[in-house]
Specification:
The complex is a heterodimer of chains A (293) and B (133). Chain A has 293 residues and is of the alpha/beta class. In chain A, 61% of the residues lie in helices and 13% in strands. Helices cover 28% and strands 47% of the residues of chain B. Chain B has helices at 90-106, 112-131; strands at residues 3-8, 13-19, 21-26, 29-33, 40-53, 56-70, 74-79, 82-84. The model of chain B has no long low-confidence stretch (mean pLDDT 87). The chains are: A alpha/beta (293), B alpha+beta (133).
């Protein structure tokens, strides 16, 4: 049985931990709201870009001259994996899930005889993968200390990826990130970005029989639009991941706060019991002492 | 009798309103869009978007390149970046021009796509200097 003093210190320390976790939960909640708003604000551009891509894809008929971003290098040997994680921990299994998915994917590809390269976005993912797959990491970027990620950040990654593609260093690129489904559910998603997936089906514009005119021409526009589309796709996954991170942290901290509460309850019960036992013991001693006289 | 104009940047929807006419800076020349314009997809250079109501300009924005989609009822501008014209600074343009020219010198001239990109940046910087204050 621990002493009364030891119990009291334990209770106090758990109480201060609880204060921290509940503060972190509140901070995560407000950051989550902001991240969701940012993701919401980015949607119109992405939607309109998809609409333009659909129109372009429909009118580019000669696919032999199409840019590499759209059709790939025609090979399937070197895979670039882009795991997107957070820069901070204490978010439950958020970072580990992406790390594990990336590792498994890398293993699978290598067992099929393919070469794997990794470009890690976020500090946690890089650290995780460094342990086993350090030789495959070709680059990394992290936003530690930054309030939010902006579009130029995504553009920066896109530029680096397209440069690798242009230099024939990679054939296929896949991004692994946490898709924000709800505050309590983030789904690890593997999405191929190069060669570009066909734009999702959606409302097509009714032009009343007319067709689009292009200026300059389809190929030139496509060549300019595709890198932008890639950047947008990366930007969206960065935003989803940011929202997911805060959601995951909120859930994790909510659980931690609840656990701390349970622990305080149990410890206080022990404390009270110990105090009661002490009193009883003293009483017995006094009474038996009095009887002996 | 109006075109519904939308200007969107990757970060947010910047502007959405009906206008009588809009002039957009296409990479091969300015394009005036009235209602019933033939459907087009164009690339944009750095320049101003003029919003007309009647025959007066009511608003001007400076775009840093991008794309535009024109249909008979709509004009959608996907801008890389857009700011009100009076916020364009000459000094920023001059700084960008210096960088852009250095970038052009360093660019791989055998690859026309890269060369074009560098030239576009120079053009953008020049128009910032012309239009800024």
């Amino acid at each position: 049985m621990p002493s009364l003093k030891a119990l009291r210190t334990r209770i106090n320390s758990v109480k201060s931990t609880q204060k921290i976790t509940s503060a972190m939960k509140m901070v995560a909640a407000s950051k989550l709201r902001r991240a969701q708003q940012q993701a919401e604000a980015a949607r119109p551009y992405a939607e309109r870009m998809e609409r333009m891509l659909r129109a372009l894809a429909a009118s580019v008929t000669d696919s032999s001259t199409a840019p590499k971003l759209l059709i790939g290098t025609g090979q399937d040997k070197v895979h670039l994996l882009i795991p997107v994680t957070a820069d901070r921990g204490l978010a439950g299994a958020f970072n580990t899930n992406v790390g594990r998915a990336t590792r498994n994917l890398a293993r699978r590809l290598e067992s099929e005889g393919k070469t794997v390269k990794i470009f890690a976005v976020g500090r946690k993912g890089r650290d995780y993968l460094k342990r086993e797959l350090a030789s495959r990491i070709v680059g990394d970027v992290s936003y530690a200390g930054r309030k939010r990620v902006d579009f130029p950040d995504a553009q920066d990654i896109a530029t680096r990826v397209t440069a690798m593609l242009a230099a024939d260093e990679i054939d296929v690129a896949t991004i692994v990130y946490n898709r924000f489904k709800s505050v309590i559910a983030q789904i690890v998603t593997e999405q191929q970005i190069i060669p570009a997936p066909p734009p999702p089906e959606g409302e097509s514009v009714d032009l009343g029989g007319a067709t689009y005119e292009f200026e300059p021409d389809e190929e030139t526009i496509l060549a300019k639009l595709l890198p932008q589309a890639l950047a947008i796709q990366l930007y969206r996954s960065l935003l989803e991941s940011a929202a997911g991170e805060h959601g995951a942290r909120m859930t994790a901290m909510d659980n931690a706060t609840r656990n701390a509460g349970d622990m305080i309850k149990r410890l206080s019960q022990n404390y009270n019991r110990a105090r009661q036992a002490n009193i009883t013991k003293e009483l017995i001693e006094i009474i038996s002492g009095a009887e002996a006289v | 009798m109006a075109v519904s104009l939308e200007i969107v940047s990757p970060e947010k929807l910047l502007l959405s309103r009906p206008v009588d006419m809009v002039v957009i800076p296409g990479s091969e020349g300015d394009i005036g869009v009235l209602e019933g314009h033939t459907p087009m997809i164009v690339t944009l250079r750095g320049g101003t978007i003029d919003l007309y109501e009647g025959d007066k300009i009511v608003e001007q924005l400076f775009v840093h390149g991008g794309f535009a989609e024109v249909t008979p009822e709509r004009c959608t501008v996907l801008a890389n970046k857009a700011v009100p014209l009076n916020e364009v600074k000459k000094a920023e343009g001059e700084k960008l021009l210096g960088e852009a020219e250095a970038g052009y010198e360093a660019a791989d001239k055998t690859n026309t796509a890269i060369e074009d990109e560098a030239l576009d940046l120079i053009q953008l910087a020049r128009s910032m200097i012309d239009l800024g204050h």
